[in-house]
Structures are given as structure tokens and as C-alpha cells.
């Protein structure tokens, strides 16, 4: 499991993370047995459809899930703080966890329209964490906040800082959200679909901005998205999530050259390609993602899988490593490996 | 030169920013009705503040020869049964009404608002318990409760204000709770938590500023009702003690002269009617912009 990287020190190691939530319809198996690790300065892309448990997983890493909604939680979230100590965030009381949020880990949210408080000036929202975590006084915090705004590419930062969120465009607001997240120089940034609510042209700017800031601060990043294309060139590792499980995990390059899980393949094929002739039909994945209420038997993707076999409906496939491929794991009985004949796969 | 131009453009953009913000908050104007109502409220408020220095007669000075004189005779708005100047008594009575309205609503707003925000934020047993208590208070006949309170704490201006303010706690708690429930689900609250904000910080920085607008807007409607409640008490002779003029007290006095001099009861009644109508009108217009109905949650 300590496979993230040999060169950079390990920052985060999640093992067997399972989160089940109470809902009015029953128990939601939001995150099931998720394991991954991440080194400083690296990017992990988490890809999956809506409702695949990406956001719940991100929030559970930050300890942001409301306590009363958690029905069951297990697994460990080992986080290496600056003094190289290893702490299990899953066991940490909220009082201590609070001091990590901001300086150690921060989060960028999906919709910049709602992630900023509409009735507070940007200056207030930016300086709050600075004063709380770094102990800056009003003046110091303000000048630091202006620096932050300038760093995320907001022109006339000194003039903008006293504005309200509604006076900014969507792209600008997301820049502000990023500036707030970076205020205390976190070691880990979780970006939960940071570009989903933005125009396509702005999306690239925001992703480039995140990449630049990540380099400058040697920050690890978990980039959550439903778009495989977004993480393709920006992530070091990619985890594909389906129904709360990581169904495939690999270094980005490996994933695209030899994807093993049928779901990854289906996601990949559903990206429209610029070189396709006009009117090429997009290969959508048939059916809908499963409801995560109550445990299902068998592979969760089986109902939509074009290679489904009887066994897939009876047993849940365990996570296995691909032979000869380091750090490449998948959860499929019949992986799409080159040379293996699918028809013979069933025994 | 350059700096001057840019300074001007900054000033202009500030001004535009302000008017844009004002439009965002107040929409495309409220129409003439709103401003007439607001103007009347301003007149009442100014009368209350400057009652002592306004060029009106002594409200307590009985001039027997003016007894029950109608409006536009010896006195602009006529005189009451003891020959006291009605205009002067209205102006001084406005002070009682305004003070009681402001104090009572403030008490209800602060206590009820705080309880409501806490209930909406913490939920659980605290919320259920509080709501049960508030429902009991709401279900109690308010006049009976008020009579008991006044009998208990006395008839001074402050006592009346506190008693009426107490009645407003449940309503405010409900408004504040409903708004809090919707605010805490917003992503910016989660974002604040993700930056390590504690409970107190979230309550003061994220929840309170978003809840306070609808609560304040509700305040004007509440003040209208407080004025009516106060006059009902005065009518029963349980408000601030005579000879201090109050609008309710004036109406109460006027009922003795209804057959001979209608204006004694009519003038304060119309004044009160206009004031409460204005409060409701202005308050409703403001509230419709800020209130979050429970059904929208």
C-alpha cells in the first residue's frame, strides 16, 4: 500500500475507509473499503459519476460529515504532519481536527456561487483563517489576503478585497475560494469538482491555476471530478470510483495505456473526441449508477457492464494487483488485459 | 493627471458598486406607497424624539374653555374632554408607543432570535424542548398572559415593554430557527468548517449575518402589532399610568364622548391606524425580500 512514490515523503495513507450514512431511505453505503496513499506534491485524481461516493469520501477525509448522519465508519486515515508524526484523522476528536483544517488540509468546493458567504466582504472571509490559524493581526492579515488574491490571478486585488461575492464573476469567485483554501498553506488540497460549475474556458484557467499553485507550494492535491479528461494530464495517480469503491487505481499513464476495469473503459469511451467525424454517436454508459442504499450482492457495475458474467452478480470482486504492473490495482474478475480472451474468462 | 482619472473611475465604480448592491438588496424600488408609508413613520419617530422641543402646547394643561372643541378650531386637532390639546397629546403619546414598540421588539428579537439560532444550529433535544415551551407560550391567550405579567411586574414604561417583549420571544425564535435551518445547509458554512472555523465563529460570522436581515425585516410588522397590544392594555387602563398620554389611553378616554365629540376617539384612532398600516406595509415589503418560508427549506 505504500506505493505512492519513492522520492517524495508520504503525506496521506488511507486504508480500508468505509463510511455508511443514515438516510430517510435506509443505510447508504457511501464509501466502501477505500485505500490509497498520496505523497507530498502529488496529485491523485478521483473519477466517478455523480453519487459514486467521491464527495462523501472527501468530506470524511476532512472530518466534515455531520456526526449524527454517520451510521458506521471504519478504516484509518494516516496523515503526516510537518514534524513527521503520523496521526490517524479517523480517530481524532473534532477539537484537534479543527486545527488541521486550514493549515494542514483545505478544500475547494464545487460551486463558487454558494461556497462564499453572500453577506460578508471578501476581506472578512479571507482574513478569518489567517487570523485564527496563523495569529496575524488585522493589518497583517489584510495585506496577506491581498497577496493571496493577487496570487490567484485577481486583477486589482487591493480594490477587489472590499467587494462582496455577488460583485464577482463565477471564475473570479472560484479563484477567491481557492485563495481562501490556500490561505494557511495547506499540505493537502482537496478540490471537489472545482470546475464543474464553471464555463469551459474558465475551467482550464482554474485547473492551470491549481496546478501552478500546487507546484509553488509543493502541495498534494486530491482532484475530484467526473471528467476523466480533466485528470488525464494533471494527475499522477487516478482512482476510479464506482458505488463507493475504488474499482481501479493506477498511475495516470498506466491507466490510460492498459485500463483493466470495464467501468474505466466505459468512462473513457464516453469522452467526446475532437477527431471523431461529425455526428459520431457518443458511447454513453447504459443505465444509471446504483443507489447506494443497503448492500448489493456482487459487483456493483454488473448491471451496466457489457462483459458481465454470472459470477459478477454473485460475488463482490476483491481488489487485486495487476501482475507485472506496479501500483496498478483493480476490482474485476475479468479484467480487460491485453492477450486475455474474454470469452474464455468464465470458468 | 493619470492618477486623477483613475481616482475618479475608482470613485465611480465604488458608487456603481453601491447602487448595484442597493438594487440587489432592495430590488427595483418599492413604489410610491412604500415611501409615503416610510415618510409617515419618520414623522412619528421624529415627533417621539422631539416631543419636548416641538412647538406644541403642554399635553397635560387643561384649558377648560377648549373642552371638546373640534379640530381646526382653538386647537389644530381639537381638544379632549379636559380641554387638553390633542395634537400635543398625540405627539407625546407617540413617544410611549415608539419606546414600547422598540423595546418590546428588541427584547423579543434578541432573546427569541438567539434561542432560534441556537435551536436551528444544534437541533436535537435542545430544539425539541425549546419548541415545545414556545408552543405552550404561543397557545396561551396573550391578553391573559399579559395581564398576569403586568400585575406581577408593574405598570412602568419598562415593565410594559418587557411584558410585551416576552410575548414576542416565540415568534422570533421561530423566524430565526427557520432561517438558520436553511443557512446551515449552505456550502459556505461547510467551507468555513473546512477552514477550521469553530462553532462560535460559524454562528457569529456565517449564520448570524444571514439570519439577521429577515429577522430585522420582521421587526417592523412586529412593532405594528406591539402598538396595538399596548393600546389594548391602555384601553383596559393597564398600560402606562395616567396622566401620561398614550394613544390607547386617548382612545379609551374618547369613548365617553363618542356621542358628542367623535374626534376625541377618532383622531388617535386614525393616527394609530396609519402608523400600524405603515409599519405593516413597509415591513411586509422588506420581509418579502428577506424571509425564508419554512416550506422552502
TrEMBL record, chain A:
Residues 12-268 form the ABC transporter domain. One of its GO terms (cellular component) is plasma membrane. Gene3D superfamilies: P-loop containing nucleotide triphosphate hydrolases (3.40.50.300). InterPro entries: AAA+_ATPase, ABC_Ni/Peptide_Import, ABC_transporter-like_ATP-bd, ABC_transporter-like_CS, Oligopep_ABC_C, P-loop_NTPase. It is found in: Cell membrane. Keywords: ATP-binding, Cell membrane, Membrane, Nucleotide-binding, Transport. Its main location: membrane. NCBIfam families: oligo_HPY. This is ABC transporter domain-containing protein.
TrEMBL record, chain B:
Residues 94-283 form the ABC transmembrane type-1 domain. Keywords: Cell membrane, Membrane, Transmembrane, Transmembrane helix, Transport. GO terms for biological process: transmembrane transport. The chain crosses the membrane at residues 34-54, 96-122, 142-169, 211-238, 258-283. It is found in: Cell membrane. It holds the Pfam family BPD_transp_1. The keyword Oxidoreductase does not apply. The keyword Chaperone does not apply. PANTHER family: OLIGOPEPTIDE TRANSPORT SYSTEM PERMEASE PROTEIN APPC, PEPTIDE ABC TRANSPORTER PERMEASE PROTEIN. This is ABC transmembrane type-1 domain-containing protein. It comes from marine sediment metagenome.
Amino acid at each position: 500500500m505504500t506505493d505512492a512514490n519513492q522520492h517524495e515523503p508520504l503525506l496521506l495513507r488511507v486504508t480500508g475507509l468505509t463510511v455508511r450514512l443514515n438516510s430517510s431511505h435506509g443505510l447508504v453505503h457511501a464509501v466502501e473499503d477505500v485505500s490509497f496513499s498520496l505523497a507530498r506534491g502529488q496529485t491523485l485524481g478521483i473519477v466517478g459519476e455523480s453519487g459514486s461516493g467521491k464527495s462523501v469520501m472527501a468530506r470524511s477525509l476532512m472530518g466534515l460529515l455531520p456526526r449524527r448522519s454517520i451510521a458506521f465508519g471504519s478504516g484509518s486515515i494516516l496523515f503526516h504532519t510537518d514534524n513527521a508524526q503520523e496521526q490517524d484523522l479517523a480517530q481524532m476528536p473534532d477539537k484537534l481536527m479543527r486545527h488541521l483544517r486550514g493549515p494542514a488540509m483545505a478544500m475547494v468546493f464545487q460551486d463558487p456561487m454558494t461556497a462564499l458567504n453572500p453577506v460578508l466582504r471578501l476581506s472578512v472571509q479571507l482574513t478569518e483563517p489567517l487570523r485564527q490559524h496563523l495569529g496575524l493581526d488585522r493589518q497583517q492579515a489584510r495585506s496577506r489576503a491581498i497577496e493571496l488574491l493577487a496570487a490567484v490571478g485577481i486583477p486589482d486585488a487591493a480594490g477587489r478585497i472590499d467587494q462582496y461575492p455577488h460583485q464577482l464573476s463565477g471564475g473570479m469567485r472560484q479563484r477567491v475560494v481557492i485563495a481562501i483554501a490556500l490561505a494557511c498553506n495547506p499540505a493537502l488540497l482537496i478540490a471537489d469538482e472545482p470546475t464543474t460549475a464553471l464555463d469551459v474556458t474558465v475551467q482550464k484557467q482554474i485547473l492551470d491555476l491549481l496546478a501552478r499553485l500546487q507546484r509553488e507550494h509543493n502541495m498534494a492535491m486530491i482532484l475530484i471530478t467526473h471528467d476523466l479528461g480533466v485528470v488525464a494530464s494533471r494527475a499522477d495517480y487516478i482512482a476510479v470510483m464506482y458505488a463507493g469503491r475504488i474499482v481501479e487505481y493506477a498511475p495516470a499513464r498506466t491507466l490510460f495505456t492498459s485500463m483493466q476495469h470495464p467501468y474505466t473503459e466505459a468512462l473513457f469511451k464516453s469522452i467526446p473526441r475532437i477527431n471523431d467525424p461529425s455526428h459520431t454517436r457518443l458511447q454513453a454508459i447504459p443505465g444509471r449508477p446504483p443507489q447506494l442504499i443497503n448492500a448489493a450482492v456482487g459487483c456493483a457495475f454488473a448491471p451496466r457492464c457489457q462483459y458481465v458474467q454470472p459470477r459478477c452478480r454473485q460475488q463482490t470482486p476483491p481488489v487485486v494487483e495487476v501482475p507485472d504492473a506496479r501500483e496498478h490495482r483493480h476490482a474485476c474478475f475479468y479484467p480487460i488485459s491485453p492477450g486475455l480472451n474474454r470469452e474464455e474468462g468464465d470458468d | 493627471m493619470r492618477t486623477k482619472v483613475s481616482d475618479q473611475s475608482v470613485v465611480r465604480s465604488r458608487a456603481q458598486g453601491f447602487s448595484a448592491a442597493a438594487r440587489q438588496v432592495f430590488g427595483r424600488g418599492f413604489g410610491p406607497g412604500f415611501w409615503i408609508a416610510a415618510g409617515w413613520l419618520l414623522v412619528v419617530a421624529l415627533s417621539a424624539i422631539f416631543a419636548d422641543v416641538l412647538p406644541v402646547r403642554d399635553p397635560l394643561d387643561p384649558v377648560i374653555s377648549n373642552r371638546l372643541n373640534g379640530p381646526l378650531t382653538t386647537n389644530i386637532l381639537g381638544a379632549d374632554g379636559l380641554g387638553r390639546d390633542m395634537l400635543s397629546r398625540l405627539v407625546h403619546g407617540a413617544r410611549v408607543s415608539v419606546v414600547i414598540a422598540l423595546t418590546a421588539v428588541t427584547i423579543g428579537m434578541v432573546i427569541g432570535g438567539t434561542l432560534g439560532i441556537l435551536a436551528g444550529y444544534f437541533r436535537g433535544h435542545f430544539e425539541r424542548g425549546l419548541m415545545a415551551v414556545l408552543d405552550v407560550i404561543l397557545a396561551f391567550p396573550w391578553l391573559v398572559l399579559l395581564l398576569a405579567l403586568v400585575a406581577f411586574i408593574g405598570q412602568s414604561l419598562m415593565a410594559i415593554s418587557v411584558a410585551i417583549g416576552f410575548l414576542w420571544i416565540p415568534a422570533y425564535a421561530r423566524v430565526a430557527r427557520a432561517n438558520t435551518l436553511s443557512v446551515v445547509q449552505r456550502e459556505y458554512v461547510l467551507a468555513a468548517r473546512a477552514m477550521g472555523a469553530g462553532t462560535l465563529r460559524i454562528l457569529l460570522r456565517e449564520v448570524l449575518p444571514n439570519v439577521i436581515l429577515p429577522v430585522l425585516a420582521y421587526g417592523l410588522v412586529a412593532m405594528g402589532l406591539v402598538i396595538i397590544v399596548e393600546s389594548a392594555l391602555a384601553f383596559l387602563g393597564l398600560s402606562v399610568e395616567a396622566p401620561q398620554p398614550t394613544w390607547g389611553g386617548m382612545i379609551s378616554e374618547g369613548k365617553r364622548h363618542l356621542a358628542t365629540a367623535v374626534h376625541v376617539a377618532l383622531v388617535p384612532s386614525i393616527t394609530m391606524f396609519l402608523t400600524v398600516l405603515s409599519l405593516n406595509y413597509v415591513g411586509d415589503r422588506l420581509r418579502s425580500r428577506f424571509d425564508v418560508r419554512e416550506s422552502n427549506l
